[in-house]
Amino acid sequence: MQIKVNDREIEIFSGACVKDALRKFSRREWKQVQQNRKAAFDRHGHEIGLDGELNGGEEIFIKSIELDKPQP
Amino acid sequence: MKNIIPTTIRTRLLPLVLVAVLAFLSCASLPPVPADTRIVIFHSNDVHGKIDNFAKVAAIIDAERKSGADVFYFCAGDNFTGNPVIDQYVPPGEPILELFNRLGLDLLCPGNHEFDFGLENLKKFAARARFPFVCANIQAGDLLPLLRPSLMLATKGGVKIAVFGLIQIEAGNGLPSTHPDRVKGLVFSEPLAKAKEMKKLRAAGHVLVGLTHIGYEDDLVLARQMPELDVIIGAHSHTRVDPAEVVNGVLVTQAGGDNRFLGRVEFLVRGGRVVEKKGGLIELSGPMAEDAEVKGMIDRFNRNPAFAKVIVTAPLAITGKDALGSLMTDAMCRTHGLDIAFQNGGGIRLNHLPQQITIKDVYTLDPFGNQVVQLAMTAAEIRGLILNSFEKGGNIDLQVSGISYVVRTDNLRHVKEIRLSDPDGKPLDESRQFQVGISSYVASAYDFAHRDPGRSLQSTTAEALIRYLQSNIDLNMYRDIKRAFWEKTIEYPRP
User: Fold this and answer.
1) Structural domains in chain B?
2) Complex ipTM above 0.85?
3) Which of B76, B186, B265, B433 is deepest in the core (most CB within 10 A)?
């Protein structure tokens, strides 16, 4: 299925979670998410959990977070 | 009197007027209720076995109940799968069942992971639950007799709350995201289409709630197509919606995932109509009051005796990445009927399994909760995967089942050739497609060309190993086993 991460289209297996899409998108970005320096958000600016289940066509945005406070 | 409304507008307005009149008559048919009723609905979703915060949830809900408001607690599904200590409990789902019974859960909309322990287990779970299941787009018949499409709850003063449930289905097979064998016999229909049939509930309840497990994006579509709803309490996408959004007049909310948040929606019903509504999330990570009894239950569940249960006594300790990787990949092949399977070295977290292998040992060996992903691959694509794995660390990385392979390099570790052999030692058929199993980690972190994007089998690599070890296999074969080889050719500079 096709997912967009930071506006770039990636193809990933069906049944993938947010963390799978982030890993596929960029090892560097994924590391920063693991270190809680960045987080994943949907197209509406809501934070999404790393185990959130994805459907084809969804969009994810990786953004910096300021301490514990998400900045959509 | 002259009619001043043009005919076209009259034609368009007439159905709306009729709907309004019918709605008024329907509301008028509801019994009278007190002038003001404050209703609080707490909600959880996508708990995935993360039970530790339920002592805080219990304290919050109990405090609200003592405040005099009409308090309800709903769950929008996916309570299983994600915490091995809880997932391996016997009987399956027991900690969730006991905790929800104690917390006084009012309703559960099943998510796709409610089926992860199979239908028979879910049936037993439902039979002992002190809360009903609600989902409109599952036709279960006798398979889940306690499931209802919708339900009517009432406050102490008689305000009626109509709730219907919806579960997601996959575009490909029309089933929720779980292994198809686990939902055999159930009939699922498209959730957003089914929701349209639920509009009739508006007439029966003062408050109309959609308790959904379809993901935030589809919750927004539902809100746009169904302004009759007062609130959509969602799940599946683990979206942290805080505060709740108002879309087309409908409050839409979801409480993230993994029990990190408790959702709270509040209504003010005046004269039988919702006049105020708001929603937000309560973060459960900080220090806060805990219910001592529930804390005790959680501590007991976390000491799961089944986790220490010996699955099998092997004739020998299984030692080294070659043996353990062979065991893990054989488990994937056998459990899921695959031709070939791969396991990355970094995902093998023990150097040996003792003779008496417990469930805890399996989850120590394979702790990441990776799913098995199935892809159709050619020999050339398999070579590409092995090449990428070798180049990542300049060494053999992938352990394998179903084939053996040799990576031949020069003395600078440049790969010159990758030879693939079938179990009889013959070169692998280059014209065939093979059903290959890899972990979701390898599928997403390794860079290799493959035409088939693959699909998750909705089962973890650790679960495959447990099932394999339970199947009376001869573990002697894992003595001195090796299937992946590195052949270094020393090349001298040409004279």
Assistant:
1) 31-302 (3.60.21.10), 309-488 (3.90.780.10)
2) yes
3) B76
C-alpha–C-alpha distance, residues B487 and B485, integer Å: 6
- Find all residues with CB under 8 Å of B484, minimum gap 6, and list them: B322, B325, B396, B398, B399, B400, B404, B405, B407
Q: Find the domain containing A50 and state its range.
A: 2-64
Which stretches does DSSP call E strand in B288-402?
A: 310-313, 318-319, 340-344, 352-353, 356-358, 371-378, 398-401
Are the beta carbons of B375 and A55 separated by less than 8 Å? Answer: no
Q: How far is A6 from chain B (nearest CA, A)?
A: 17
Residue A72 lies in a domain: no
Find the largest Cα–Cα distance for chain B. Answer: 112
DSSP assignment of B132-171 equals -EE-TTEE-GGGSTTEESEEEEE-TT--EEEEEEEE---T
Say what the pLDDT of residue B113 is: 95
Q: How many residues does chain A have?
A: 72
Q: Which residues contact B315 (CB under 8 A, 6 or more apart)?
A: B355, B475, B476
pLDDT grade for B493, boundaries at 50, 70 and 90: low
A24: closest chain B residue by CA: B444
Tens digit of each residue's pLDDT (9 = 90 or more) over B134-156: 999 999 988 888 899 999 999 99
Disruptive mutation site among A2, A9, A20, A33 for chain B (greatest number of B CBs within 10 Å): A20
Per-residue pLDDT of B164-179, as tens digits, reads: 999 999 988 999 999 8
Report d(CA B57, CA B282) in Å as an integer. Answer: 9
Q: Give the domain CATH number at A37.
A: 3.10.20.30
CA-based nearest residue to B401, from B313, B321, B340: B340
Q: Mark yes or no for CB contact B375/A12 under 8 Å.
A: no
Alpha carbon distance B174, B179 (integer Å): 12
**How does pLDDT run across A23-71, given as a tens digit for each residue?**
999 999 999 999 999 999 999 999 999 999 999 999 999 999 865 555 4
Contact A4/B at CB under 8 A: no
| Pick from B177, B258, B458: CB nearest A51 | B258
Asked whether residue A70 is assigned to any structural domain, the reply reads no
Residue B458 touches partner A, C-beta closer than 8 Å: yes
pLDDT 10s digits, B281-323: 999 999 999 999 999 999 999 999 999 999 999 999 999 999 9
DSSP string, B297-314: HHHHHHT-GGGG-EEEE-
* Chain B contact for A53 (CB, 8 A cutoff): yes
Position A31 in a domain: yes
Domain count of chain A? 1
CB of B245 less than 8 A from some CB of A: yes
Number of inter-chain CB pairs under 8 A, A vs B: 98
What is the average per-residue pLDDT within B5-13?
A: 41
**What gap in Å lies between CA B46 and CA B204, rounded to an integer?**
29
Token pair 């001043």 is found at B4
Chain B residue whose CA is closest to A42? B239
Question: At A18, is the pLDDT very low, low, confident or very high (cuts 50, 70, 90)?
Answer: very high
What is the tens place of the pLDDT at every residue in B109-129? 999 999 999 999 999 999 999
A46/B239 Cα distance (integer angstroms): 6
Closest chain A residue to the Cα of B454, Cα to Cα: A13
